[in-house]
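INFO worker-7 received task bundle
INFO bundle size: 2
INFO processing item 0
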Amino acid sequence: MSRHALRTRGRDDDTVQLYLGRRVGWAGSTVSTQIRVLTLRSLRTAFGDYRLVFFGLLQPVVMLLLFSQVFSGIGNLPGVVEYQGYINYLMPATLVNIAMTTAMSSGVGMLTEIYTGFIGRLRTMPISLFSVLVARTLSDAVRLAVQVVVAIAVAVVVLDFTPAGTGGVVAAVALTIVFGWGMGWVFVALATWQGKPETMQAISFIVMFPLMFASSAYMPVEAMPGWIKVVSTVNPVTYAIDAIRALCLGKPVGWALAAAIGLVAATATAGAVIAARNFRRTR
C-alpha cells in the first residue's frame, strides 16, 4: 500500500472515530428541556387559534350564567342562605367544574395526538416518554388558570360575586389549578388505557357527572337524600369544593384543605403511574 493511501486511510479512521464518539457521547436533551419544549408546543397549539381561545373562554362563562340562573332558587335553602346570594355558593363549585372539564380535555388531547401520529414520531426520538405526559398536564394547567381568572372576573363584574379578599381568591385559584392538574392525570391515564375517542368520551362523562352532582357543588350535603348524602360525604370533589369555597369567602377551611391536597396528590400519583405504564405498552 502506498504512503498516500496509508495517510488517507488514517484520516478516514479518525473521521469515523470522531463521528462515533459524538454519536455515542451525545446523551440527548435533559428531561426538563423536553418538558419545557413540549409544554410550549401544546400552549402554542391551544392559544394559536383564536377560535379555540374564544370558545374555550366562553365555555365556563356560559356554564356559570346557566347554573346561576337555573338554580337561583336554591339560594333560599338553609345552609345556602348564609352565603348572601347563590352566586357566592355556586362560584367555587364552578371553578371545580371548569377544572374537571379541562382535565377531561387533557385526555382527549392526548388521544388526539396519538391518533394524528405525533406521539408515534416522538417515540422515534431519544426523549423520555414520561416528559410527554408531564408536558400535556402542565400545558392544560396553564390553560385552566386563564379560564379560571376569566370566569372569576365575569362573576364579579356581571353576577355580583363578592369574594372575601384577594389573598383568599389567589389561594382558591391555586388550589383549583392543583386540583385540575391532579384530575388531568386520571383522564390522561384513561387515554393511554383505551384507544377509541367514543369510549373515552363515554367514560369521561360517567366519571365527571356523578363526581360533580353527588357533591356539595350545587346544594348542601345536609339537604340531600340519604344515600346521595353518603356518596357526597366520601366524594373527594366535595372536599375540594368546600376548601375552595372557604378560601374564596373567607370562612374557616378546617381540614377540608388538607384532605383535598392529600386526595389530589394520591390521584395524581396513581394516574401518573398508570399512564406511564400504559404509555410504554402502547404501540
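INFO item 0 finished
INFO processing item 1
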Amino acid sequence: MFRLFLPIIFFLVGATFLISSLNLPKARLGDPYGPMYYPTLVSGLLILLSVIYIIQEWRKRHDGFPELELLLKGRTPFLLISTIVLSLIYAFLFEKIGFLFSTIIFLGGLLFIINGRKKWISNIVIAICFSGLTWYSFAILLKVSLP
C-alpha cells in the first residue's frame, strides 16, 4: 500500500490547487476568467496524471517494492530528514533575517551534510558566493526586491 502514497499525495495537491484556482478573483481588465486558465489547466493535468499513476501502482500492488528498500538504505534517510529539517529552518529564518543570510545558513548546512566537515572551506565559499551572486543578480541587476 506504500506504493499508493505518492500518487495520492499528488492527487490531493492537484485537487487543492484546482479548488484554489477556481476561487481566484476575476480580472478587471480583459478576460475576467484569464487568471484561472493556466492554474486550472495545470492542476487538471496533475489530477489526470495522478489518477493514471494510481491505476498503474494499484496494478503492481502485489509486486515487491525495491525502491522503498533503496530509500531506507545507507545515508539516504539521514539526508532526507536533515534536508526537510533544514528547509523548515530556512523557511522560518527567511522572513526573520532575510534572503542573503538565511540562504547562506541553509546552503552551508546542506553542503556540510552532503560533503562532510573535510571540505569545510569549499562548503563555506560556495554557500557565501552562491548566495551573494544570487542576491546581487536579483537585487541589483534585476531590481527585484528580496526580503
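INFO item 1 finished
INFO post-check item 1: The helical segments are 5-22, 34-59, 66-71, 76-97, 99-115, 120-141.
INFO post-check item 1: The chain has two domains: 2-64, 72-140.
INFO worker-7 idle
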